[in-house]
Specification:
Layout lengths: L6 H20 L3 H20 L8 H49 L2
Helix pairs in contact: 1-2, 1-3
């Protein structure tokens, strides 16, 4: 039977993946970014389901805090790269939708 990874190990894995997400976002590698996000979501679910109540030591709590902070910083960096692209997609889809409505209305 495989041992369940500790909370800290899961946060370390999430942090490593979030750093890879930053790299993918900077490279505009959206497919890789989506795959990495799925992996992070899976780890997040593991954390949610692992409410075993084991108290962390002071050192572990500090490590957990530092990892969460790093993940949040990486998330902000990913958003900095993805939000302009998402706005472009929204505008493109809006323009396409508007054009189709005009074509339907005027029989173009």
């Amino acid at each position: 039977m495989l041992a369940m990874p500790s909370q800290i190990e899961i946060y370390e894995d999430m942090s490593a993946l979030s750093a890879q997400m930053v790299t993918a976002a900077r490279a505009q590698d959206w497919e890789t970014l989506v795959g990495l996000e799925r992996s992070v979501a899976s780890l997040r679910k593991t954390l949610e389901s692992d409410e075993d109540g084991n108290a962390l030591s002071g050192i572990e709590l500090e490590r957990k805090r530092a990892l969460i902070q790093r993940i949040l910083e990486d998330d902000a960096e990913v958003r900095r790269h993805t939000e302009p692209w998402m706005e472009h997609v929204r505008q493109f889809l809006g323009d396409t939708s508007r054009r189709k409505r005009v074509e339907r209305a005027y029989g173009a």
